[in-house]
Amino acid sequence: MKRYGNLEELFTKNTDNLWDIAIGEVQKKENVGNDEEAEELSERSVFFIGNKNGGKTTIILRCLDRDEAPKPTLALEYTFGRRAKGHNTPKDVAHFWELGGGTSLLELVKIPITIDNIRTFSIVLVLDLSKPNELWPTLENLLQVTRKHADQVIATIGKTNSKSANQLKQNIWRSLPKDHPDKELIDPFPLPLLIIGSKFDIFQEFDSEKRKIISKTLRFVSHYYGASLLFTSKSESLTLKTATRSFINHLAFGLDKSKTVSLDQNKPLFIPLGFDSFSQIGSPPASETDLAQFRVRTPLELWKKVYEMYFPPKNTGDVKELKDPAKDPQYSESAVDAMRAQKDQELEHYKRNADKSWRAMALDSHVR
Fold first, then answer.
1. What is the C-alpha separation between 241 and 231, in angstroms, rounded?
2. Rg of the chain's alpha carbons, rounded to an integer?
3. Of 54, 48, 81, the residue nearest 232 (C-alpha)
4. Strands (E), the chain
5. Nearest to 225 by CA among 291, 157, 283, 271
6. Measured distance CA(264)–CA(2) in Å, rounded
7. CB within 8 Å of 299: residues ≥ 6 apart
8. Phi and psi (nearest 5°) for 261?
9. What is the pLDDT of residue 199?
10. What is the pLDDT of residues 50-70, one digit of tens each?
11. What is the pTM assigned to this prediction?
């Protein structure tokens, strides 16, 4: 009876008719949605991928003001940081994910990127400038796998909410100046992307021609994917540290990006999204004869061919071998490794005995 009594009161109020009540309910739902969106925007996720031992952990610790020695990353690691918006206000939260092992654990890329967080998710690709022969395979493998998964997540969202999926696809385009001359020529990454070239202190010891090839290639790749680009080193100047932190804080907390821009290949590159162009980058560093011999379908493939002409990728056999984390030296554990070796021997012994048994059975059957 109480339920029906309340329902009767609902319809007999003088102040509200049924239409007013319906409008009020819709407004409540919209306000709840806005509150959820505001709460979502207060939490962002940043995923660090790149070369093994390339300096990902060091960059994260610096941005979080943690004065501690970096440790080798075990597979996939997580940490977080908080930043106060103002006095007596809730703190923004940044979730930091880091993929270890370089390109040996690509399947783990799928774990941090989900339907729930992709709207506020960004990627930081850290490339070791001191290892130019590993540079292209690393960026290609990691970006391909990450892009494929991000596209799948966005496609899944599009099945139930096409408007939200389209907004995700348009976010990168909105970051580019409307009048940028290369808008029709780039292929933007589906998530905000920052490419960091680490170990510039070693890189600057290379001869000028090598530096030029690497710098131009990374500028092209970054611009082609609609990404920002910067170089870092252990012995950074105050300006370099401030600019690096500004880039990361923009992704992690939504703060304003650094306005620093440096296109000089003799200095650390600092190129925010939209501040470079294909005309400034120029053509791939190769002769017309070399360029004519390449059979490619896209500008990205052409730059890859030219880059590999100077820096052939190393044998990928080591990478395939390291796809088994148990064989990766960074995860070594003497007691566990000894037991693993013993079990491997027992397994081989079992296989040999089983093989003999099957052969004996087959021979016996044939004799009969």
1. 11
2. 27
3. 54
4. 43-50, 76-84, 91-99, 121-128, 193-198, 228-231, 270-271
5. 271
6. 77
7. 185, 220, 224
8. -135, 130
9. 93
10. 999 898 998 898 888 887 877
11. 0.74
